[in-house]
Amino acid sequence: MSDPHSEPSASIVIPCYNEAQYIADQLQSLVEQQGVDRFEVLVADNGSTDDSAEIARSFADRLDISVIDASARRGPAFARNEGTRNARAEFVFFIDADDALPADWLATMSRALADHDLITCRFNTEILNEPWQAASWTNGQAEGPLTFDPPFLPFAGAGALGVRRSMHERVGGFDESMRVLEDADYCWRIQLADGSFHFVSETEIHYRFPKKAGVMFRQMRMLGQYHAFLYKKYAPHGMPRHQRPWKEGLCIWRGLAKRALRARRMDQTKRAELIRLSGYYWGRLVGSARYGVVDP
User: Fold this and answer.
1) What is the pLDDT at residue 147?
2) At what angle are helices 213-234 and 182-192 packed, to 10 degrees?
3) Residue 264 confidence (pLDDT)
4) Which residues is 44 bridged to in the sheet?
5) Other C-beta atoms within 10 Å of 284: how many?
6) Nearest alpha-carbon partner for 228 in 141, 293, 154
7) Most exposed among 21, 101, 129, 231, judged by the fewest C-beta atoms under 10 Å?
8) Which helix (H) or strand (E) holds 57?
9) In sequence order, what E strands does the chain have?
10) Span 163-188, pLDDT tens digits
11) Is the pLDDT of residue 122 over 90?
12) What is the mean pLDDT of residues 187-213?
């Protein structure tokens, strides 16, 4: 357990909204961290109506942990910013309440952050998910940071980021107006401010996919929509447009429609693939119309 009477060497910020089902697993993985001490945990409660906050406080005998009221504005971007405003350390790490960490994670990431402004690590999507979940979507952060097609600057999921607090403050933190892909925007703004971004291949997080079809669809719909938003924002910085001929786009929708007709006969993996792809491309259409761009 970290010593609550000494200054922490690292602050771990966990945005949380109704994660009572999983947050104990994530906090227990922090209890089991090895090779590092004097770290604090800040659970930024984004207005939970379940027992998330109470579960977090129950770890007070094992962690230097605080529950921060981050309910003034809904969204993980606000919660991360609010948690960071309460952080005492220069090294700040963002993780998600429904994931988990191997025992070497914080020590390995802390060593890497000593030489960089922003870091991330590998995702492992097999440990916390059923086989059909892991097989239904490509793990884009298995061997390097994420990127769009065609590529622009690399980025990473916010559930596995480490940043110097001074850099976080320099760029103004996460964009609280964004509901998703605020992590891509955050990583890009740091790089455009000449911050160094490094991928740590020596450790990983254990990432959890959603199981419910409605959650999967909404998640991917929002990703598609905000992909268009990012293109509008970063085209002046050189972000390339996804130049897809309209006939190719029509073929994609025709293919999705044909697959939907066979959905009842699909196994769980194929059905999850269909849900995610349908959500993403629907979001792309909505985003293109909303933000005035064409097939970003």
Assistant:
1) 92
2) 30
3) 78
4) 15, 68
5) 24
6) 293
7) 21
8) helix 52-57
9) 10-16, 39-45, 64-69, 91-95, 118-124, 160-164, 197-206
10) 999 999 999 999 999 999 999 999 99
11) yes
12) 96
- pTM listed for this prediction: 0.91
Q: What HEC string does 143-206 produce?
A: CCCECCCCCCCCECCCCEEEEEHHHHHHCCCCCCCCCCCHHHHHHHHHHHCCCCEEEEEEEEEE
Helix (H, G, I), strand (E, B) or coil at 91: strand
Q: Cα separation of 1 and 39, whole Å?
A: 9
Closest alpha carbon to 234 in 142, 140, 155 = 155
Domains of the chain, each with CATH number or no CATH: 10-206 (3.90.550.10), 213-291 (no CATH)
Packing angle, helices 246-261 and 268-291, rounded to 10:
140
The residues pairing with 124 across neighbouring beta strands, listed in sequence order, are 206
Q: Which two tokens stand for residue 37?
A: 């001490």
User: Phi and psi (nearest 5°) for 164?
Assistant: -75, 130
CA distance 186 to 191: 9
Q: At what angle do helices 268-291 and 213-234 cross, to 10 degrees?
A: 40
pLDDT band at 209 (very low <50, low <70, confident <90, very high): very high
Structure tokens at 224: 């598609």
CA distance 185 to 80: 14
> 164-177 burial, b for 16+ CB within 10 Å, e for fewer?
bbebbeebebbbbe
Measured between alpha carbons, how far is 97 from 29 in angstroms, rounded to an integer? 11
pLDDT at 3 over 60: no
Residue 2: what pLDDT? 47
What's the count of helices (H) and strands (E) in the chain, helices before strands? 10, 7
Nearest CA to 158 out of 140, 134, 182 is that of: 182
Neighbours of 67 (CB within 10 A): 20
pLDDT, averaged across the chain: 92
Selection from 250, 252, 256 nearest residue 270 by Cα: 256
